[in-house]
Amino acid sequence: MNLKTIGVFVFIVFVFNVKCYHSSGFGRCPKYIALRNFNVSKIVGTWYEIERTFHLMELITSCVSLNIWENERKQLQVTVRTISRWSGSIIINRGTAIPNKKIRSIFSYKVDSTLPNLLAKYLPGTGIYQFLETDYENFAVIWTCADLGIFHVDQIWTFRKKPFRSRIVSVDHLYNVRLS
């Protein structure tokens, strides 16, 4: 086997692994229909993760909750609380979600960090997030996508204001989100 053949083989294996372990596909990130009349103020409160698509970095976490409140600048302050499956310890991460000026259901999320901005923008969790569906009281479906050139990797979560819910209903929400 020559070097070019090995390179193509490695690339195919890499893409196959990304496809198996993430919700991904070739091409750019898909576009989802924006929620009409999205009310940022109604999102505040504590939300509990009910379901999520597979993501390697979240494999060791469980019992995820978001505590969201609006600051004086109309940005959302977010505290993410998880429990480590390995140690049982509580992990707290904080950040700021800045609503898009044109599409209010899309947010630019930045993890709070003392790192320089040049490095902080690459921290896990930092990125663009979109509320795909919500009734503000019972459930919210949140999606993010990373565009990696010739393919993309996306994640989707279902959250609820109450900690317990049937997973079957939650998975239905993941598959029935309005697509454009």
TrEMBL record:
PANTHER family, per the entry: APOLIPOPROTEIN D, GLIAL LAZARILLO, ISOFORM A
Q: Name one GO biological process term.
A: lipid metabolic process
InterPro entries reported in the protein's UniProt record: Calycin, Lipocalin_CS
Q: Which SUPFAM superfamilies match?
A: Lipocalins
Q: Where is the signal peptide?
A: 1-20
Answer whether the UniProt record assigns the keyword Signal to this protein.
Answer: yes
Q: What is this protein called?
A: Apolipoprotein D-like isoform X1
Q: Which GO terms describe its cellular component?
A: cytoplasm
Keyword annotations for this protein, in alphabetical order, are: Signal
